[in-house]
Amino acid sequence: MTALQEKPKAVAPSGPPPRRRGKRATALAGTDKLVLALMLGIPTFVHLLFVWIPTLGSVALSFSRWNGIGGFEDIEWIGVGNYVEIFTEYPRFWPAVQHNLIWLLFLLIVPTSAGLLLAVLLDRELRFSRIYQSALYMPMVLSLALVGFIWQLIYTPDGGLLNSVLGLDKPVDWIGDSDINLYAVMVAAAWRHTGYIMLLYLAGLKSVDPALKEAASLDGASASQTFFRVTFPVMKPVNIVVAVVTVIEALRAFDIVYVINKGRNGLELLSVLVTDNIIGEASRIGRGSAVAVILLTISLGVIIPYLYQTFSKENRS
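Structure (tokenized):
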């Protein structure tokens, strides 16, 4: 009876013993958090210090009249007086706007077309295509100031490369003549800009699905029809990037014209007016800041729609 009354012993379950739940491991150690905070904090601080604070300061000073001498208590707040003066009484403003528009149209037509043509040729896997790509992109590595120095030597009236090649009886003053110097400098800017556009379009051509081209050729489309009706429309995102980059490049053009002749004698641009008013002989901080705000507003009118379209696509996907 005692044996029958004994409770049966529990049989240990087969398999590995259950693991004990320990404390959850921390994702980042204390040192890693410090390094991450420094990596994010220092660039953010530098960006705020050198970009956003001066930008907001320029917006505030655009509503003032100040020559930069004395303290902030000497600032005279005049509302929108600087903007009214710029649009109605400042004789250099509208010629500068016209020059920026000419600069933009030139970059949209000449280097964009040349860059697209070069990208199409290099996409055909030509021999030594890598060397060609490097050589054509090399000017983009140079700063606009250095490009200005190089083309100064090319455009020099006496002994310059261009006049020597042309062999004219009367040398042309490519930089000193106000009727042609803007177009001469735009050629120099296009020489630098073409390589960048070529690289953007070459990346876009590499991303096009080859099946689309094969389907178009099977339907009897020629090479030009395939490109303009199939390949080029597919590269719409690249075309938008090229347009935005070109607009920004045209608006921020400053170094090359300032190196050549300080943006005078037919080379006035909006960026040059900002510099002339702020650090010129007669400092007009308020008017220079107002021109800078106008330039910023035009730039944001291009950048914000592009960013909105880009992020809305990412959210939809």
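The chain has a mean pLDDT of 84. The radius of gyration is 31 Å.
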